[in-house]
Amino acid sequence: MIPKKSEKIIRNLFKKHPIIMTRKITLLSLDGGGIRGIISCIILKYIEEQLQQHDQPEAKLGDYFDLIAGTSTGGLITALLLCPDEHQKAKFSVTEALQLYTEKGASIFDVSFWDKLLNPFGLFKEKIDDTPLEQELARVFGSLELRHLIKPCLITAYDISARKATFFTSHNAQNPIRNFRVTDVCRATAAAPSYFEPAQVVSLSGEQFTLIDGGVYANNPALCAYAEARKIPFSKVLNHPDKPDYPTANDMIVVSVGTGTVLKSYAFDDFKNAGKVEWITPLIDILLSSNVETVNYQMQKMYESLGNENTQHYFRLMPELLKASSEMDDTSPENIQNLIQDGLTFVRKNQAQLDRIVQKLLDNR
What we know:
Protein name: Patatin-like phospholipase/acyl hydrolase
Number of helices: 15
CATH class: Alpha Beta
Number of strands: 8
Structural class: alpha/beta
Largest sheet: 8 strands, mixed
Order of helices and strands: HEHEHHHHEEHEEHHHEHHHEHH
Pfam families: Patatin (PF01734)
Number of domains: 1
Family: Belongs to the patatin family.
Oligomer: single chain
Strand content: 5-15%
Low-confidence stretches: 110-126
CATH architecture: 3-Layer(aba) Sandwich
Mean pLDDT: 86
Keywords: Hydrolase, Lipid degradation, Lipid metabolism
Distance between the termini: 35 Å
Active site: 72 (nucleophile), 213 (proton acceptor)
Radius of gyration: 22 Å
């Protein structure tokens, strides 16, 4: 039993220095992969539906994460999830994002008969006309600025003029030099070499950049997102005093979502005398896949070093491509359905893990 004098001292101490229960920072990372972003949407749709069932019927995933990062197709999903409504809450559900992919994917990635004939496999110029993509981005986002996204974000691109990585971050975009139209951000992160021509975008301060898809260095942006989160004063940026500033790995829950494992094998006999032309396609495939695997390895090892409790706060969700094509621009009706089915198969086989993610998001509200 605590003496009354000591009890009074403790009460006065708590009045002067109250204990604040801090929440963890929730971080969502979304890989690149073109039309395979459908798989990511299927997985995220399950998580969002469970949040609606157990928390709020109108819940949207963008309201449950403190930072969302994306590369290429993951960057487009990031912008959709963080697009604001009139109340500065998430405007789009994952279902609406999925609908955009399934309904507009074919027109965005369309290659005409004559282009296929005159420019086979994109050998002589970019494979896909960027006009439908730009028109769709303008329809969805209009004049929305990066600084108006509802939460911190990190969307990757690469500056081929300055030869350096470019990170679009909404929490730094109050400065016009770092602020862009969201349509330009999405166009830049989607500019996959040989698929779309580079994006020429202009900041709100008037500076011009020539950018390509950030997948050339961060097809899995989870580690970039972690590094960015380390330097953010979340309690101020989110106006949420329970959120830790400049969080460490111990303070984060990380959910990293892939667009399907690509394990196409290459035989020695096929490449023992191969030159530059023969290596172009497989090299791109290998570089993208190896980056995804390497980042996952680094994140796993980092969280394994934190002890049993915090090891459980890193989730890597990477489905297998069982029926779907690994091609980033295969928008045939059959492949769209196969992507959906592969995503649903992953959800069914990994429901327990997805439910743990949902519970952590709910506990952290």
